[in-house]
Amino acid sequence: MTLVYEPRKSHYLLSIKGYLLRAGTMESSSDEEEARTFVQVLGEKYNPENFPYGQGVVVLSSPPGSPIKDRLFLPSALVLNHCGITKAGDRTDIAAFCAHVLELDLSHNQFNDWGEICTIVSNVPHLDFLNLSMNPLSSVKLDPSMADVFSGLRRLVLINTHISWDSVHTLTQNTPELEELFLCLNDYSTVSESQKSCPSLRLLQITENQLQHWAEVRKLGSIYPSLSTLVLANNSVESVDDSQETLQLLFPNLRSINLNNSGLSKWEDIEKLNFFPKLEDVKAKGIPLLQPYTTHERRSLLLAQLPSVVVLNGGAVSHGEREDAERFFIRYYQDCPEQELPQRYHILVSKYGHLAPLAEVDLSPRSTMVDVRCGEKVEPVSLRLEQTVADLKKQLKALLQLPTNGIRLFYIDREMCSVLGPEELKCGSRALHSYGIRDGDEILVVPKVKSRCSSSDI
What's this model's pTM, rounded to 2 decimal places? Predict the structure, then answer.
């Protein structure tokens, strides 16, 4: 962002037709209208007082004879959201100040006239990105005769505009270089077909709509045949109702699909994702099909069903994880009746063979019976091995009627006592299982002897 400054003057002088901004104060040459314009907000937001030197504005002296003397140079990415803009303003001002602008965020404004939007866009010749989200465009239709001004766009965001499909198609038919389109939160329950496809589009995000039937998703494949990323999250799509041949033709270049929080409830729908010839990235969190399973089961069963996927639910899949998942899949289904076995089971059995069930290892802390000896008294006691030495002293307090700080404990291994001798249990925080205590071993309790020293003993 560059601000042209004339050194011989003691103040900034920014000329925008119709306004004179001096030292950060706007003086309108005419009474300010109620409707806020793009030009007006541009001058207000990028006033030099809002960008002091050293915080993003570079102040340069303009060379002699420069045609841009006393002009404000704006950043290449303009953010004019939440500004209440309804009109474009003078097109010559837009052209003068926005010749270098590449990105324009006009979200959360009050545009409801495509003519005003077209006036702005037509005077930003290098515009690559346009965000019109949260503008009320539901009741206005884009005239095809005006749409050629959008021809240079590569990314277009129309979130929560409730724009009609007719206007969407008019835009995409006139944007030959469009690569990314965002149509979230527009309450679409159907998809209107287009007479002309948009072969340039690579990413379509159409989340948080009301799409339910696969027949509507199928239309997206026809309209956008080159899609590599399709984000359908938070729609209620219930199933994938197409054959292998249809799916291969429908999305031949699809590499990533997001089905988070969709309505898929059958494993057959997951299996059909394999029919997309280039699919390698799948997101399928929060679907009804996976609700009965644990987190580990969900990922393993999904991964085993999708042999070509290298990224699942945002996490990269290693070779080792895939092998573990496929082996888990075999063991998970191997006790099911033959008629209930998925086709993938037979493929994996041919790869790994029939696998023996994994041995069940109980790693939970266990109990053991030991003899507790205190003097001539011997009592059998059941010990919980997860408890600590301090816990054991408390347990023996009631049995022996001795204070916990008045005893010493020794562990005697019945098999190794002749070699090792008693081992004192000194550390109160140490768990009993770490001593290797077994049934039949002995705990020796020795009361502490208080030593006394007096002057008569010296």
Answer: 0.70
Query: Taking Cα atoms as reference points, which of 188, 245, 177, 180 lies closest to residue 211?
Result: 188
Residue 250: count of CB within 10 angstroms of its CB: 19
Q: Which two tokens stand for residue 166?
A: 């007719």
Element (H, E) at 343: helix 343-352
Q: Which helix (H) or strand (E) holds 16?
A: strand 13-16
Q: CB atoms < 10 A from the CB of 96, how many?
A: 17
Q: Please, how many CA atoms are within 13 Å of residue 434, restricted to the half-sphere of its CB? A: 10
Q: Pick from 35, 9, 39, 7: which is nearest to 22 by CA?
A: 9
Burial category of 181 from C-beta neighbours within 10 Å (exposed 0-12, middle 13-18, buried 19 and up): buried
Q: How far apart are CA 6 and CA 12, in angstroms?
A: 7
Rama region for 23: left / alpha / beta (φ>0; ψ in -120 to 50; rest): left
Residues 56/1, Cβ–Cβ less than 8 Å: yes
Range from 194-198, 316-320, 422-426 carrying the lowest mean pLDDT: 422-426
Q: Which of 108, 109, 158 shows the shortest CA–CA distance to 129? A: 158
Nearest to 392 by CA among 418, 414, 367: 367
pLDDT tens readout for residues 313-332: 999 999 999 999 999 999 99
Structure tokens at 12: 């900034």
Rounded Cα–Cα distance for residues 283 and 272 (Å): 14
Tokens of 72: 């404000």
Quick one: average pLDDT of 382-396? 86
> How confident is the model over 38-65, as pLDDT tens digits?
999 988 887 766 655 534 333 333 344 4
Q: Are 342 and 271 in contact (CB under 8 A)?
A: yes
CA distance 343 to 335: 15
